[in-house]
Every structure is written in C-alpha cells, then in structure tokens.
Amino acid sequence: MPVSHPAGAGQRPRAAARPPLHLADLDPPGRRGAAERLGQPGFRGDQLSRHYFGRLTDDPGDMTDVPAAARGPLAEALLPRLLTAQQELSCDDGQTRKTLWRALDGSYVESVLMRYPGRVTMCVSSQAGCGMACPFCATGQAGLTRNLSAAEIVAQVVAGARALARGEVAGGRGRVSNVVFMGMGEPLANYTRVLAAVRRITDPVPDGLGISRRAVTISTVGLVPAIGRLAGEGLPVRLAVSLHAPDDALRDQLVPVNRRWPVAEVLDAAWGYAAAAGRRVSIEYALIRDVNDQAWRAEALAGLLEGHLAHVNLIPLNPTPGSRWTASEPGVMREFEERLARRGIPVTIRDTRGRQIDGACGQLAAAGRGGPVHIS
Length: 376
What we know:
The chain is of the alpha/beta class and 376 residues long. It has helices spanning 28-37, 43-54, 68-78, 138-142, 150-165, 191-202, 224-231, 248-254, 263-277, 295-305, 330-342, 363-368; strands at 83-91, 96-103, 108-116, 119-123, 127-129, 144-147, 178-181, 216-220, 238-242, 281-287, 310-316, 347-349.
C-alpha cells in the first residue's frame, strides 16, 4: 500500500524478484482455481490445504490421498519452499528459538518462537528490512529491501507450528497460540499481504491454521490511514502502537514518520480502532537511557492515555551492536512504571526474551548480510 512519508523514512521497496505463488497466498476458491489451471480437479486445492494447514506438511510423499502422479506437480506449483533456515539460536532452556530465514531472492528475515506457561507466541516479520528509519532499531538501520508475500509470512508460523507438533521445542509437543507482527518491518506498510496472512493464520483448519483472531497482534509505528483502514476490516486483532515518546519533539527523532502523523493523530486513530474492534490498544514504549525515560515523560504519557482503552508495554531496549542507545536503569524503569500505575494506567514491563541470541529484530539478518552478530 503506498504511503507518504518524510525524507529518511518509508522508502519504497527496492526491486526484487517476486516470490513464486504459494497455496497460502490464495483463499480457498483461489486454491481450487489454481488446481484446475494445473489440469486437476478443484478439490485437489482443498486436499493440499488439509496437508499444509492441518497436517503441517508440504512433502508430496505425505499426500497419500492425492494420486501419485499428481503429487509432485501440485506440490511444485503450489507448495514451493519459500524460506530456508540459515541459522537457529535458542536460549531460555530451549524455550525461545530465533530463526534466520533466507528467501529465494537472497533476502533475510527473522522469526522468534517463545514458549511461556500456557501459551506459545510466534513473532513474525512482514518485510525484509524496514523503511521507517527508527535510529535505535537494527532493522531500521538496514533499510527496506522488499515486502514479504502473504505466504512468506505464513511460512514462519507454519515452521514454528511444525516444530512444536514434532516435539522439537523444549517442553514437549504443543501448538502456536499467539502470533505477533513485531518482527522485521512495518506491517501496515505491507497492508494487503499482512491482512491476507492474518486470514490464512486465523481461518479455521483446513482453510488456515485456526489460531484465534484475538490472539493476533499487529504493530505499527503509526501509519494513520492504514490504522483507519484496519478498523474497518471487522477483524478483532489487537493493535499495538510503537509510541516511544509522548511528545512530538522527541518522537520526531525516534520515529521519523511522526513528522507526517504526530502523536495526537496517531492516538486518535488508535482510539478509533479500539472503539471499532472492542479491543484495548497496546502502547509499546522502549525505555532508552536518558532519552525518553524521564519522570515528566511518564506523567505526560499518562495524561495522553487516561480514560482510554489502552495498556502500556514498557520494553527495556535491547541495544544493537555499535549503537549509542541502551536500556534504562532498572530503578528508572520501575519509577516510570509506578508513575503510570499511580495514574491508573495498566502497565507492565515486558519480559525481554532472547537477549543472548541477538533478540532485537534485524541483528541476525545483519549477520546474514555480512554484519556482526554478538552472542553472549
């Protein structure tokens, strides 16, 4: 979706080869039509859906309900392998796994699987790189390569679901319960493909993965027209706004797109979304030492949020190699949290998983491009 941004933010994707068509790019009628164009009965598309979304396999050898002569051609045409794992790191006793994926055109993206008591969350990328140019973000430093296809997004979730189903993640067999679009990229700058991916993720099995829509979170730095468009979709997903500052003077520096849509406009759009979806909005706030963690900014943030359906996630910044930005001191974080809580604002300090495996989005991808990776 074309979006106007200030200089230095929101670059158009650089020219790249379009990923091949995949079953997950299509809705069920589209899959049946694709099978028919391959000279097969339309219901073969439904059969492939059952294997990919229900049984989590794209191996033709597993498709014993499809005639042997048709399996290979159908899988080659509609189930191409879009992403290849280049590196996988784990921590938290194996319950957090970060994967660096290489796409067919050489682009790199990342996903993270996080297992908690009672739930498993997949954090997925929506773009290779990012054009928002936030200076404290590894992905923003890299710039934008291209939008991911809907199927490339879905493939990240399928890979996590497959690993859980096979018992490959510490804690035994399981399933993905939550999906957050908080990996590489600005999801609402890839609006059409992200919405298609959300539908594939949440459509009932075998049309999709059957994950609850209410368990999906879409983050944004504040693309106001796209927030309004999302409010009209009738999808009760959670919206997360990466605010990071309550005042325009600082947010212009931290989130350059703020020069196009300032704080007041972003929050007005967020409250409109909350009213339409009946969901409270998550306000993401990365605490950066001596930058945005002052007590007066906590009070200013509380003033903006009072009386609205919102919850604040305070995020200790995961610093990137060579960056001058670093996390706030623990005592400062606690004071910021307490000031919000005293004003009646629901607030938590996020559990920052994956620090020892370069958990900040973009760090492994930077290594894939030849940049440094630091593992402690």
